[in-house]
Amino acid sequence: MNVAVDFKNVDIVFGPDTADALAMVDRGATRAEILEQTGNVLGCAGANLTIHEGEISVLMGLSGSGKSTLLRAVNRLNIVSRGQVLVKDGEKMVNVVSCDAATLRRLRQNQVAMVFQQFGLLPWRTVEENVGLGLELAGVPDAERKARVDKQLKLVNLDPWAKKYAHELSGGMQQRVGLARAFATEAPILLMDEPFSALDPLIRTKLQDELLQLQKTLKKTIIFVSHDLEEALKIGSHITIMEGGRIVQTGAPEDIVLRPANDYVRDFIANVNPLSVLTAWNVMRDRRDLESAGRGWTWLDRRKTTRFKVDKDGLVAAAERDGKPVEWVSCTDVEQHPEDGTQVYWANPGTPLKTVMLAMHRSQTAPVALFDEQSRFVGAIGVRDVLSAVLRR
Ligand SMILES: Nc1ncnc2c1ncn2[C@@H]1O[C@H](COP(=O)(O)OP(=O)(O)OP(=O)(O)O)[C@@H](O)[C@H]1O
After folding, report:
1. N or C: which end of the chain has fewer CB within 10 A?
2. Domains, the chain
3. Known EC number(s) (predicted)?
């Protein structure tokens, strides 16, 4: 996967004379200590983060943790005191910290678009004029602008509204126009600074869905600042948690939920429902860790009700439940096959844990076998595996 943005040892200090503050950063001083001794504000320190093309990378943390500071370094709205911020520009990476003014201008026009809170539509402009605003400012010729705007409006099903004035639209629709405008710039990298934070929860959820939908076809690289973990878990392919200007953890949503790096992250996830992020893969016991039942057989569960004989290619050659041959039932079909003690329940690793749990519930806690796309047996889930994941212990 190609890298779109790469932060390398990025320190940002706000203030006239940063040398003393940077020396304190090197000694691991806190933001409060740096402020007290030097009068400078530490924006962020030692930030290392690699963002791949097509990812939605969410920067998360409490107010003042440095999320926006880091985001704004990508298009040099913030001056980096030390380190590099590499941004993909065609086939090469450009260090925005040190590039010349012409290169920076080009990057801002063609590569990196910034979306601020609430999008701010201009009420006296029509929908199409609003969507085309960024292109107009960038000096894109009329005909090309019209074609690009039409395309984006169709994408979000707003083309029938093109000639309406922004003030004639409902709040939610205005936000969709705003989102279309953000995607209309065609810049491959989008910086989004809490775009949905001021919206009521219903509209917010809808726009998150819309963003994910647009992303499916457009596959932009999105860096998204949020202080809402539910939002981060929903839209982020990766989440980076910041505290006091420093990155404390980066990982996939399930990494954050299953393996919080410290108490700060633990506090964040305390009220998160793990079922919203976990898949079968996250809780299964790997096939190699299951107990042998002798002569090539493997027990799926600790209670030793179900066992498989797996051939050298990883395919199941024989399966027994309580010593009898079995009927295979997918976790999604449990309702149609009432439990009678002869079934083996199966799923793919990407199946939501919730689906697996429903199957377990209906089947009176039978184990679930997981198979990959080539029908190879990869692991099993028992009730205890589910409980430890949900209870995080
Ligand atoms: N231009 C600036 N000049 C001076 N200090 C700044 C500037 N921008 C940010 N800071 C300081 O840097 C620190 C990090 O701010 P930042 O805005 O990145 O936090 P944040 O995590 O995005 O918070 P929020 O969610 O409140 O926006 C804060 O202490 C802030 O006061």
Report:
1. C
2. 3-7+47-273 (3.40.50.300), 280-391 (3.10.580.10)
3. 7.6.2.9
